[in-house]
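Structure (tokenized):
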């Protein structure tokens, strides 16, 4: 899987960040459940440890937009895997992730917000 840092991704322009993250998620989709979990956990941990609040929100916003473009049969497992990976982190990191995801959902376009919340 691509080794670009999440902080570096956050600083890309919107279109390039979307393209890079789409590629990462496509690579994740081809992995086993265990490998997907580990990949997501590593990404979330890096975000929680190193990203500024604005970088974190950009990453969450892009993730939500990409996730909302998935068919429901892929979206539900993706959201479940992401939530499980986040919950496996130490409490301060899991809390930071939850707060930023909730803020990104609140700031998302209405169609993105609706699709995500219906599939949580």
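Design, position by position:
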């Amino acid at each position: 899987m691509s080794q670009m840092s999440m902080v570096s991704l956050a600083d890309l322009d919107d279109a390039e960040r979307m393209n890079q993250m789409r590629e990462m998620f496509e690579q994740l989709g081809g992995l086993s459940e265990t490998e997907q979990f580990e990949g997501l956990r590593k990404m979330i941990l890096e975000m929680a440890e190193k990203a500024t609040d604005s970088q974190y929100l950009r990453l969450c916003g892009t993730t939500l937009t990409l996730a909302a473009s998935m068919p429901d049969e892929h979206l539900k497992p993706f959201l479940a895997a992401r939530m499980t990976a986040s919950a496996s982190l130490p409490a301060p990191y899991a809390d930071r992730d939850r707060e930023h995801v909730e803020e990104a959902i609140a700031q998302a376009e209405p169609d993105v917000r609706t699709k995500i919340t219906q599939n949580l």
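Reviewer-requested clarification: The chain has seven helices and no strands. The chain has one domain: 6-119.
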